[in-house]
Amino acid sequence: MANRFIVYILALLFLVSCAGYKPRYIEEPRLATPPAVVVPEGFNTENYNAIHENEFLNAASNPLSTFSIDVDAASYSNVRRFINDNRLPPIDAVRIEEMINYFSYDYPQPRGRHPFSVTTEVSECPWERSHKLIHIGLQGEEIPVDDLPPANLVFLLDVSGSMNSPDKLPLLKSAFKMLVKQLRREDRVAIVVYAGAAGLVLPSCDGNKKRKILRAIDRLQAGGTTAGAAGIRLAYRIAGENFVEYGNNRVILATDGDFNVGVSSDAELIRLIEKEREKGVYLTVLGFGTGNLKDSRMEQLADKGNGNYAFIDNKSEARKVLVSELGGTLFTIARDVKVQVEFNPVNVDAYRLIGYENRLLKKEDFSDDKKDAGEMGSGHSVTVLYEIIPAGVESRSARTESLKYQTTGINPEALKSDELMTIKFRYKLPDDNEIELFVKTVMDDDLPLRKSSENFRFSAAVTEFGMLLRDSKLKGRATYNQAIRLAESSLGRDKEGYREEFVELVESCALMAEDMTER
Fold first, then answer.
1. How much is the mean pLDDT over the chain?
2. What's the angle, vertex CA 83, arms to CA 40 and CA 75, rounded to 5?
3. 0.85 cut: is pTM over it?
């Protein structure tokens, strides 16, 4: 009788396996640990999109400059990683706007109906004294964490073999433990992992179940290949099943950026992410590790997912992104924020936007409400710099041929104006599709550099450093020593020590540059 029962059970198991039965979710970390992928020392497959630096444009023939804001700061921490390894970063890893926006600035909190304030300042350009810099600072409304809407979060964690390194999965686990400690009872969290397959290791639970969430993170181990696309699909499905109306619904992807098993087409992934974005589920991307970083893909995914992209190179950076700046990382206060600047050719001969090369928009896109743009989070600041060549100063901008069928003229009112430019900001509130417009004009106060604000001088120092790292043809008389002096004169309160750390990085690069010159 017992033997017959055993045979019956074995036959049943065989039939189930032949039918192709699979559990709803494959819980990869609970299986025997797959063999780790051993990455040879010195092996490097990191990938960066090419950056074609913005040139000077003639203000008379190209009066409009249009772009999307960018709150990402991944480039700075990634550049820091290279320098701390005693290496100069690849030039395409240096996105100057992200380096500038890594730092917080002393901008006022907004007052009135707009969720951000706008501060402008004009002074001398440190690396080309006949030119001027225009500094534009946006400061997002700071919302206390306790007042933020409920969060529905899905942690999408890469546990593939490429993550088997101290600066990858162990650091990832430390980072997410920091985030878990910030969660409230009204928040919800699920954990999805992917390696050879995607799996749900923690169904969505209340944020106060911290022990349960931390135990799930502790059990994670690295091994296998990378089914990233399947992981993203599963994470979005879980986010949709637990969607919170008027809440913060977000997938947080943590990876070194590799997707090498299954459907990995960038176009297909982007279409999926854009579709989920329209449903109100956003995507934040956190990068980890050395040698395999797919920076170009990760930045693009975060951009299309209405989220932000950060690179975590140490525990201090994890604390900055997931604790100190938690509101900005996870909660959006303004969507599709576009900027359009109109220059007055009477006072500006030529201009160039510093950075934001991959955020440029056509002038028509500014009024196209279907055109996606960047998001601003709670407490985020965004800084934009233009270098201008004032009227009357010899210009290096390309001239255009005169037109046969039409002529362009200057408004007589502009001839009497001291305005340099007019800035327009177009955006939507998080849960509203109505368009909001913010307009501000900028005058030239003829302010000497020594009397400019700490905000102005420090952002100029970071810009100068970025141009030197990129060996920009527009760097003029920029030097590491000048960048150091500018930064040291504008450290401000700097309670976290980020600005002092910046000075140390520039000093390290100056020494590396000297060594290369002496060889």
1. 88
2. 90
3. yes
